[in-house]
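Rather than argue in generalities, we have chosen a single entry, letters for residues, whole numbers for local backbone shapes, without further comment.
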Amino acid sequence: MTEEEKMKAGKLYDPSEEVLVAKRMRAHVLSRQYNETDEYMVPERKRILKMLLPHAHESACLTGPIQFDYGENTSIGKNFFANFNFTVLDCATVTIGDNVFVGPNVSLLTPLHPLRFQERNPFQKEDGTWTDKESAKPIVIESNCWLAANVIVLPGVTIHEGSVIGAGSVVSRDIPAHSLAFGNPCRVIRTIDENDHIEEEISEDDSNR
């Protein structure tokens, strides 16, 4: 297996391998280029996103700044919105459904490092290159979810359809569908149901004021 195949399979891999380094550097450059544009520069932003996120729907809206490790390992559905400082370390796949809202300072983090420092610390290979031992697990955010400000999603987590994750939460385990969950570690508080319906509606006249 190549180092990239090991990475995507959740096995220990060498992040210093030249193909992986080149792909990360490309994603980092494209992220920086995106961050240097203004929100009104829509065609330029779309051009950059198409290169950085080839598996994102064209309707995706990312306020910026953003930071992706690979970009190509992330897929994004329709009507996605991310507020400021969206960070995705997509060593493993990151799958985001339709109509997902992401607040400011949200991080989706797939990488893992060994717990024992003897196995975690950097070391030199025979050719003199410094590297370390890493692995990664996929993250899935299903459709119609909202991740509020400062949420961190850890490796291997799936947040199921229609769930809301409260601000400042650290999500370390799967969240069932239609759940309100928050905390560190994030815990399900209750189910979201018809009792959460908002009675007030914005009328056409109100929206034009």
